[in-house]
Every structure is written in C-alpha cells, then in structure tokens.
Amino acid sequence: MGALPIGRQLVHVARRRHLHPRPIALRSPNMPDSSRDQLIGFIGTGNIGNPMARNLIEAGHQLVIYDLRPEVMENLLELGAESAKSCAEVASRCSVVFSSLPGPPEIEAAITSEDGILAGASPGDIHVDLSSNSITTVRRLAQIEAAAGVSYIDAPVTGGVPGAESGTLTVLGSGDADAFERVRPLLDPIGSNIFHLGEAGAGCLFKLLNNVIILCGNQIVQEALVLGTKAGLDPEDLVEKLRLGTARPYMGLAPYLLGKRFDNPSFTLRLAEKDVSLAIEAARANQVPMPVANAAHQTYLRALSAGLGEQSFLATLQAIEAAAGHEIPTIQIEGGGASL
C-alpha cells in the first residue's frame, strides 16, 4: 500500500439536528422510493454503537437493529427499534446500513459472510461503517461492496462513549462523495463535527492517528507516576505540582490511574492493542518508523498476557508496575478525562 492521499476533499459539515426528519434521497433520483428507504439499519449496538443508534431513534428515524448479544439491543427495542436475525436481514430491509463493530475480522464477517450485509443488500444501497478498521481492509471491502453496487463509507468516530451519548462525536468519513452527501443528514444526530476526508481509508487513518496519540502517550504518564512514587514522592503532591507545570495537559489521566479505575471501561485494553497494532501496520506500509508506538504496543501485549484485556486501556499501569516492582498508592483525586 502506498502513501494515502488524505487532503484532497476535506469537507466540514456543521451540525444540524433533524428532530422531525425530512425525506432523504438515499438513492439516485431516477430510482423509485420504497419502504426500504424509510428504515435505517444498525449493526453492532455495544458500548458506542448503542448510544449512536439511540440518538438516531430519538431524532425520529425508524431503525432495524442486529447484534450478536440480544441483551444490548433491549433498550433500543423499548424505544421502538425493530430487531433482525442477521446482518443480511438488516440489509434486505434497509437501503442504508450503519455498523459499529470491534475490528477488521468482525467487520469483514458482517459484510461477506453467508448471512452478511451483501447477502441482503441491493444495488444502490449505502453501508456506513463507523468502526475503527485496517486501511487495507477498508479499501478491499470498499471494492467488494462496489462490485455488488453498494457504496461503502468508512466513517470512524472519535469522542468515546461520552461523545456518543451526547451526540457530539467527530465523524471522519471517506469514500464515495455522492453517497456520503446522501447519508450526511443521518449523521447529524450522531456527531457535531462531520467531515468527508477523501478516498476510502482516509477516515480510518485519521482515527488511528487520533487513537495512537492517546493510547501511546498515556503510558509515559504511567511511567512517570511509577517512577515518582517509587522514588519517594507523595502521589497527590506529585499530581498537584504536575498540574501546575507544562505536563498539565496530560494530568486528566491522573484520577483514573491513581484511583485504579479500570473496571467497566468505555474502551478496553484489548481494543487499544488492536488500534495501536493497526497504526503500526499503516506506518509500516508507508515506511514510517514508529519506535514509540512499537514500545507502547509491547506494553499492551504484556498486559493482555496478564489477563487485563477487558479492563480499561489504562490498565497497562499494572504491567508497568510489575516491571518496576512497585505499585503506586491508590488514592482518589478529582478530575479526569480520557475519551476516545
């Protein structure tokens, strides 16, 4: 894969909510309307997909939803969504399908499996994938869907669960520009900053760059806190003074780290390892060395080996503590913010 052109079609779309949505031209003007155009599909209603789907419902849209875990669909069904038994059924009932899934294997299965999206989709349909993905996988899936007459839009989001809950995510879209414009009104309930960034894969790269910064940068904060407390500094005093200096922008992580707040995460360590790995893959394809990201990735792998995959991505602290032979004291301090 060569260098990715990402600057050609940067289009920022201001937020506009549609509480009583007008009809949206989801197909080409010469194609007839159908009941499929009045339904919106949504595949993957987990931690971040669920609030995005809920915001679409609350904006007045009728959803057909599917997730492998029935329990994560219950609140949406109570709000009026209809359930499907497979990705294929969602696609057969809806001309626009959103997906929000953990990573490349799940996304590919949702599209190409026997009961996947392409088994139910029709020419002229649009698939908007809100997941974090591999750039090479995005490009390949875009070609596969295009061969079936389906427009694939990769539109990963940043802002984490808080942004999904409030409908203020940043949507990093790329792919077919005409298809993106047709579904853009459906993105208004999801995000407050909506971009079209160019060819397939550009949105994915933007998302990976966003994530690799926080997912790798947080580890130096962890190392500093372990070093400081092992050397005898008071942890609360250490954080207080760091907040007064040039390290202040990084101290939003301190309450999570000192409080060891790793359970019930909005973004797991397993997903963090996946995103850092995908960023390194993109760097390798473009012949860009990333020694810091590679070192951070090794810490994620050690934490995964220690069984911490379903805890917060900040649980890498435990791997760093183990390597140092020192645990920082657990204390509760105010503040905090680590949304992806």
Please, could you describe this protein's structure?
The chain has 340 residues and is of the alpha/beta class. It folds into 2 domains: 11-198, NAD(P)-binding Rossmann-like Domain (Rossmann fold, 3-Layer(aba) Sandwich); 206-324, N-(1-d-carboxylethyl)-l-norvaline Dehydrogenase, domain 2. The protein is built from 14 helices and 10 strands. It has helices spanning 49-58, 74-78, 87-93, 104-112, 117-120, 135-147, 160-166, 177-187, 202-230, 235-242, 254-258, 269-285, 291-305, 316-324; strands spanning 11-14, 39-43, 62-66, 82-83, 96-99, 126-129, 151-154, 157-158, 169-175, 191-196. Strands 1, 2, 3, 4, 5, 6, 7, 8, 9 and 10 form a 10-stranded mixed β-sheet that branches. Strand 9, helix 8 and strand 10 form a beta-alpha-beta unit. The two termini are 27 Å apart. Mean pLDDT is 90; it is low at 1-25 and 27-33.
Concise description?
The protein has 340 residues and is of the alpha/beta class. The chain has helices at 49-58, 74-78, 87-93, 104-112, 117-120, 135-147, 160-166, 177-187, 202-230, 235-242, 254-258, 269-285, 291-305, 316-324; strands at residues 11-14, 39-43, 62-66, 82-83, 96-99, 126-129, 151-154, 157-158, 169-175, 191-196. Strand 6, helix 6 and strand 7 form a beta-alpha-beta unit.
